[in-house]
Amino acid sequence: xxxxxxxxxxxxxxxxxxxxxxxxxxxxxxxxxxxxxxxxxxxxxxxxxxxxxxxxxxxxxxxxxxxxxxxxxxxxxxxxxxxxxxxxxxxxxxxxxxxxxxxxxxxxxxxxxxxxxxxxxxxxxxxxxxxxxxxxxxxxxxxxxxxxxxxxxxxxxxxxxxxxxxxxxxxxxxxxxxxxxxxxxxxxxxxxxxxxxxxxxxxxxxxxxxxxxxxxxxxxxxxxxxxxxxxxxxxxxxxxxxxxxxxxxxxxxxxxxxxxxxxx
Length: 264
Known about the structure:
The chain has helices at 18-29, 42-49, 77-86, 144-155, 166-196, 205-217, 227-230, 233-242, 247-262; strands spanning 10-14, 33-38, 56-58, 70-73, 94-97, 114-120, 137-141, 161-163. By secondary structure, it is an alpha/beta fold. The chain folds into 2 domains: 10-164, NAD(P)-binding Rossmann-like Domain (Rossmann fold, 3-Layer(aba) Sandwich); 170-262, N-(1-d-carboxylethyl)-l-norvaline Dehydrogenase, domain 2, CATH 1.10.1040. The mean pLDDT is 96.
């Protein structure tokens, strides 16, 4: 097998969800050829393929896949192992998943496959444009040639590419859930409380921006403010009373207050 031309890789994309819908066009824009798209939902795969130059829709994985330099698994974590086991991979295929928490060891059950990880650390939502050069990519592979291919591919999209082993990537993924998913949930609670008081959500915008900017410029625990950090018992009690109609949020408030105070 000849060495791939890293400036223009032929890629098979398995999956057509949020990550695939952002990554597929980004790969094409970077000069790579997404040769085919497969999904359990054929119309969704067709919609994504229509946005990619000369991409075909693959309808079955039961026969050997079309040749590609790399097959990317843009599917839920739980679907990776079954997909690896049931797909008719070409001999020596390089296959990489895009998951943050899934170890490289998932490929051990398929020794004929050259496995790797191609993890973009970002949140993906419909209708949002991403600044791909700023998106960190975390790479891992079970052989040097596979690693080189993945590093070069990531480098064609982003200025922030690094090797991470599975343990490091898992810890990073947990950190990302705290920074992104949990933060977004807390902002959702704040938004709902404002709506109850018939107050506009934009009231919090300057505060949220300053909080994030400050936390990025300093160790976040070192710049913690608020009634929990001050151990302001009357204010904490008033907040608890204000949350009486929302027992789950009240409990979360108590737990977060306790967590903040343990870090002081």
